[in-house]
Design brief:
There is one protein chain. This protein is an alpha/beta fold and 382 residues long. It is 41% helix and 12% strand. Strand 1 (95-96) and strand 2 (102-103) form a beta hairpin. Helix 6 (119-138) crosses helix 8 (172-183) and helix 6 packs across helix 15 (369-377).
């Protein structure tokens, strides 16, 4: 009996060891696609020239290590064991706060002013914004500045104690808002507005395992921007409306983007999230303007939720002023490069331009657009 058990265990061990090889060649288990943080080494270039290089074997070994069968499952299992047993996260860039709240460290550093750009550079930025707003106003088009919410501002109580400094200095967001107000810049402070809703909102505005505002929260934000554009241009636009919504603990993009980075087998339960089923009611007075959004990833949810496709005759998202999502590629949210793109011509044709950055990125409003547009309109003042 003992021999049979040992033999059975030996066969089981060999079978387990052979599983990756079987998966690699037969593909009998669907492990799903990896959505989190991971890297894959490229396949080595097997050529006569590279044959005599010492690095060829290392490159091929790295490639085989990253493409063996059941790799996705193995990474998730490793991530799950480290997280469940040791509280360790395989993606080192994530901060694990109290009550299971996740952050990225640069949001926390910005909140405490550790990346403070200084008063003079921020004042220069806001003066250029004011000059551009005045220039665009003469053309009949508003340039809207929006400070999107920030998780560190919204949930400072869950930031790990060891990351809280003994003294807090100036930060980019508060300085930019103050400078903007003093200069008469037309700006929407959604970060402050979000904070005012924190204790009264019936729905989650910031998911525990996400770094961006919730799907629901971004719809509220977009509706606020629409109302601002309506007042600025004296028009009536479509608004996202709903009477029904799906409530679930299974987060949709991007409500679980930090959780996805961890590559876990089982995601911990989060708060109940709200996903409105949107519809739009046009009328005879409805206007669909040509819109350009310039900013960081907080703008992308306007595309994911489908709002942008309904409210504008033409729209573009200049993501970080380097890549474009527009009417032609929004379904896959695929980005195309702005290299060689005639953005100046598109800027002139737009009815409204919205600069939207989360509070963390207040020191780089428009991600380079402000300086580029200012140099275009004021070449003698570089």
């Amino acid at each position: 009996m003992e021999k049979a058990i040992k033999k059975g265990l030996l066969i089981l061990v060999f079978f387990v060891l052979l599983l990756p090889l079987l998966q690699q060649n037969v593909f009998f288990i669907d492990c799903g696609s990896m959505r989190g943080y991971y890297t894959e080494a490229p396949e080595a270039d097997l050529s006569v020239k590279n044959w005599f290089k010492d690095s060829l074997q290392i490159e091929e070994t790295n490639y085989m290590n990253d493409h063996f069968g059941l790799r996705a499952y193995s990474l998730r299992l490793d991530g799950q064991v480290n997280y469940a047993l040791f509280g360790k996260m395989n993606y080192g860039g994530i901060v694990h706060g109290s009550d299971n709240y996740l952050y990225l460290p640069d949001y926390i550093e910005a909140y405490y002013g550790k990346d403070y750009a200084g008063y003079s550079p921020l004042a220069d930025q806001m003066k250029k914004v004011k000059a551009l707003q005045d220039t665009f106003a003469k053309m009949g088009k508003p340039l809207v500045v929006v400070y999107a919410p920030d998780k560190a501002w919204f949930y400072p109580e869950h930031i790990p104690v060891q990351m809280k400094p003994s003294a807090v200095g100036s930060n980019n967001y508060k300085t930019c808002v103050r400078l903007g107000d003093s200069l008469g810049v037309q700006q929407i402070d959604m970060n402050r507005w979000y904070l005012s809703l924190k204790d009264t909102s019936r729905e989650v505005l910031y998911p525990k395992w996400g770094i961006h505002w919730s799907n629901y929260g971004s719809i509220l934000g977009m509706d606020t921007i629409i109302r601002y554009i309506e007042r600025a241009r004296h028009i009536h636009m479509l608004h996202p409306l709903w009477t029904k919504a799906v409530h679930t603990r299974q987060g949709r993009d991007p409500d679980n983007d930090l959780g996805d980075m961890l590559n876990l087998l089982v995601q911990p339960k989060t708060d109940v999230l709200c996903y409105p089923e949107l519809y739009y009611e046009p009328d005879a007075a409805t206007t669909k303007p040509n819109l350009i959004f310039v900013g960081d990833s907080y703008s992308v949810n306007f595309v994911r939720t489908g709002v942008m496709q309904h409210i504008a005759s033409k729209w573009q998202l200049w993501f970080n002023f380097r890549q474009i999502i527009d009417t032609s590629n929004y379904i896959s949210t695929a980005y195309t490069s702005m290299d060689g793109y005639d953005w100046k011509s598109e800027m002139k044709k737009a009815d409204c331009i919205v600069l939207l950055n989360t509070a963390k990125n207040a020191n780089i409003l428009g991600n380079g657009f402000i300086n580029a547009a200012y140099d275009y309109y004021y070449p003698a003042k570089k």
